[in-house]
Amino acid sequence: MTNSVQHYVPQAVLKNFCFKKKHLWVFDKKKLLTYKSNIRNVACEKHFYDIKINGVEASLEPGLSKLETDASKVIQEIVKQESLAGIDEEERELLSFFFGAQFARTKEFRMRYSDLQQKVVNHIRLAGLEPDKIKGPHSLNEIEIQNQSVRSLSDAAYQFTPYFMNKVWLLYRTKPSNPFFTSDNPIALQNALGGGPFGNLGFGVRGIEIYFPLSSTLQLSMICSSHEKIHRYGYQKFLRLKQFAPNLLESMSLDLRELEIVEKALTTRKAVEILPERVMNLNSLQVVFSTRFVFSSLDNFSLVRKMVDSNPAYKGRS
Question: Which residue among 54, 89, 123, 256 is the one 20 to 30 A from 263 at the CA level?
Fold first, then answer.
């Protein structure tokens, strides 16, 4: 059997958020506590990817470790160069598969899987049937949930990969004094467009924005192509106004600084510094999507405390 302690957020990524070698700050949303920790002790559980198939022990840990090693080389190059310009299609596909696996490998994903199974069972009971006495979905114990989630992780990663590949990739930067958070569930989504009856946070939904913090100062944004079209229209309008009616720019509600930032990111593929308000927005997504723990290079979690105080649902559930 593999090493008993297995990470669902790779240490190779977490080290980019350390304030000193292998140490970062942690905020526990459930206990409302802040402490510093070595990255080997966070976002991990014993035997998290170990299962038994027909009585034979198996583990997904070796395969995930190989994926982490390959993907971290690309991530570290992006961090070093502060640019996406040097990333070829093969490396982009590798990162997309890595992101798909990251989304499906966390404790949060496993808990949602368990929740979905339980909802199906509850609906069966509401129909007057007993789940354990019919062929089909039934209540799963922790071992069964782990076995099913681990066995389906690879398929899920392949399924999600095209959604990351087909997005427009941008690289955002912030100052070390105002760092990006990451968390125990670092793939975060938002969508400013109204959703239909099934919500608006699916990977393939129009207007989706997907974010993954690469380091305390760099964040990868993967956005729906519809955003690029909207941006191009807005930017051309801005240029025309700048040329023919500069006095009207001050009265426009559209944040022109944001337009110029996005334009620079699109055209140069280099990291562009975003506004503090945008950093707050992206950090708030880490708070919302985290299961329980938020990580930072600085001991400043005032945003997390404020959000948890305003909405108990953000306290987490594990």
Answer: 89
